Structure formats: structure tokens, C-alpha cells
Amino acid sequence: MAEKLNDAALDQLFREARTINVWKDKPVAEAQVRALYDLLKFGPTSANCCPARFRFIMSDKAKDRLVPHLMEGNQKKVRQAPVTVMIATDYAFAQHLPKLFPHAPDAKNWFSDRDVADETAFRNGTLQGAYLMLAARSLGLDCGPMSGFDADAVNREFFAGTTYKVNFLCSIGYGSDEGIFPRSPRFDFEEAAAIL
Amino acid sequence: MAEKLNDAALDQLFREARTINVWKDKPVAEAQVRALYDLLKFGPTSANCCPARFRFIMSDKAKDRLVPHLMEGNQKKVRQAPVTVMIATDYAFAQHLPKLFPHAPDAKNWFSDRDVADETAFRNGTLQGAYLMLAARSLGLDCGPMSGFDADAVNREFFAGTTYKVNFLCSIGYGSDEGIFPRSPRFDFEEAAAIL
Which residue out of A4, A5, A46 would a mutagenesis test of the B interface target, given it has the greatest number of B Cβ atoms within 10 Å? Predict the structure, then answer.
């Protein structure tokens, strides 16, 4: 039976982890990126639909394509970060269910309604984005998630002619303490939760 | 600097963790539920907007209200699980930004466009749902997430007259090996990801 992780691990994953705004000049290796994927891929999704698609922006050439579409405050951060992941969603995910969910051969048809498919894609692709962030932290990497960008322009630049749309971005690397905001308040349990 | 968590922790969070279908008759204490919230609340959200709202269904009375609205295959599981969390989203989250994001007094106005607000609410509330699952696993608890329920009926029963809507459900407790599906395939790195 699983036990509670130790306090250092809980601090690293949740309590002490902070969104990074300034990145150290320390590279992330391709092997780390692959190890990250090999953890996050196991996170649960509805009917194992795995609709997230990941683009790891690491080269200057790829940064040149992304940076013009970011809000000004995010441009320097993405230039500086060794990796920025584009978490995208494949809205045609259902075509892969015969492979991903083999024990239910009709699973593809559960998503024939467009609204159901779109909501499932966005919900589960976003869950996978969170798995990515916590997998990164579990590997000793820091995260800097961002929503401040021109999604239409990013889609045109990276996903024209595909069924993919960008969801959000997350820089990954080794964060500097510099530029970290003071921790913002969280809701108390009673403000956000209830036991029924 | 943070280090990689040990293999046992990575197994517990990702590699060996499985969606539970049969629950042991072992309770989860209110203190564990509060400890769970006190971890997940630190996960990052856009402008710290924290739009998820959590209803921890633990009493028979609350299960009586929820179970009739579940797909048949989920009814027994929720009856059996010591806790089932309703992860809901507050679509009026922006009103709380003066409290949650105090260093940007105009943050509330970033979400005055209804489509932007709705997308932000769903994306970030879903991220928090993933934080909940990984926080539960980090505390040694198992998860059984579910989307198979009548969302309109659940909203009428639990959230009438509010700005909250249910997102998904997740049972939490101690799982039995019984009823666990064989691990379904995942995409290889090249199928779902690319380094640019």
C-alpha cells in the first residue's frame, strides 16, 4: 500500500514550488524531456483518450517562431528558458481510441457529438498539462506556465492544416529566485470546499 | 535546488498508479481531506484565479443525492468509495481576484470578456482537478476519476442558484487490486510530442 510522500517531496511538488519568471542559464537535456513525457503519459484521462500534444521549443529557430506571438511580459522569459512546452489539444483525438482503449471497440463513437468531443478534448488535454507540470517538478525541474499569448497566431504558425489547437504554454528549466512574486493568498478550505 | 524524486515516489505518482474501480472498506478521515486541500491549493493557476470548488461527498445522505445522476457503471463505485469529490468550477471566479491576486488591482477586468472568462475558468479549474488527483496520490490515497454522469442533473441538485458547474468527479480512498483494467497503451513520444 502506498504511503504519504515525505515532507521534502510534498514541498517540492506543491508547498514550496513557485512559478518561475527568471531562468538560470542551465540547459535541460533531451533525455530529461523524454523522461518527463514518460511520466506524464501515465496520468489518467477519460477513456485513456490522451488528447494533449506537446511541442518542446528548445532551439533558437523555434523560439523565433513563437516569441512574436507572446505578450510582451512573456517574451524574455521564453527566450531565456531552456525549454518552453506548447501544450496543444488534438480535437480529433477520438480516431485514436481503437489503439488507446482497445477493450472497448466502440469507444470512438462515444465522442461522435461535437460538443462532447470538444469538451472532452479540452478537459483531458488540460489534465495532461497539469501532469506535465507536476512530472517536471518531480524530476527536479521548475515550471513557468503562461496563458498570455495570441492563440490564433500560434495555431497558424505551428498547427495550420491540423486538428491541433494550442491550450497553454509552460517554460521548464532551473528557476532563479529572482523575480518570484511573493506567494499570493489561497482560499481557506471553507471558501473553496465543503464536506457533504 | 530540487532533485529528482526517488523511483518509489515516481511509481506512486505516475508509473504504478491506476484508476480504481473497487474500493476497500477503509475510511478516509476529514483530516486527510483537509491535508489534501492544503496541498492542491498551491498548484499554479492563471493570475492565481483558483476557480475550482470542491464538494467532498462522504455521507450516505450526500451519496443519495449524487448516485441517481451517475451512469450505472459508476453507481456502485461511488457508494463504495469513502470519498467522492465533485470538482466544480466557479464561472464568476473573477470577482475574487482582488483577494487572490492583490498585486494587480485591475486583474478582475482581464476577464470581462465572457468567452475569455469561461475558457479560463474551465482550463484552470481542470488543472486544479489534476492537482487534486496527484496530491491524493502523494498522500498515499488512490483515485478513480469519472466523467460518466448527468452534469445538468448534478448542477440542479447541488449548484442551483450559484455560478458553479460540475466539471468531473473523482472517488478517493484505498483501492482494491480487483477490477483494475490492464494498463492501456500510451502514445510513444514521437506520436504525441516533438522537440523543435
Answer: A5
The CA distance from B83 to A70, in Å, is 42
Nearest by Cα to A170 from A142, A150, A192, A138: A142
Task: Give residue B113's pLDDT band: very low, low, confident or very high (50, 70, 90).
Answer: very high
CA gap A155, A126 in Å, rounded? 17
Q: What is the pLDDT of residues A140-160, one digit of tens each?
A: 999 999 999 999 999 999 999
Query: B73-95 burial, b for 16+ CB within 10 Å, e for fewer?
Result: ebbebbebbbbbbbbbbbbebbe
Half-sphere exposure of A5 (CA within 13 A, CB side): 28
pLDDT of A106 above 90: yes
Question: What's the CA gap between A1 and A9, in Å, rounded?
Answer: 18
Q: Does the beta-carbon distance from B2 to A137 stay under 8 Å?
A: yes
What is the rounded CA–CA span in Å between residue B88 and residue B54?
6
Residues of chain A found within 8 Å of residue B30, distances taken between Cβ atoms? 195
Q: Is the ipTM of this complex over 0.90?
A: yes
pLDDT band at A180 (very low <50, low <70, confident <90, very high): confident
The matching CATH number, chosen from 2.60.120.10, 3.30.565.10, 3.40.109.10, 3.30.450.20, for A13-178 is 3.40.109.10
Instruction: Say if CB A80 and CB A23 are below 8 A apart.
Output: yes
Q: What is the per-residue pLDDT across B8-61, written as a single tens digit (0 to 9) for each? A: 999 999 999 999 999 999 999 999 999 999 999 999 999 999 999 999 999 999
For A124, the closest chain B residue by CA position comes to B126
Q: Give yes or no for residue A120 having a pLDDT over 70.
A: yes
Cβ neighbours of B61 in A, within 8 Å: 196
DSSP summary character for residue B94: G
Q: How far apart are CA A91 and CA B123, in angstroms?
A: 15
Considering only CB atoms, B12 lies closest to which of A2, A127, A140, namely A2
Looking at residue A140, its amino acid is: G
User: How many Å apart are CA B118 and CA B115, to the nearest integer?
Assistant: 5
User: 3-state class of A169 per DSSP?
Assistant: strand
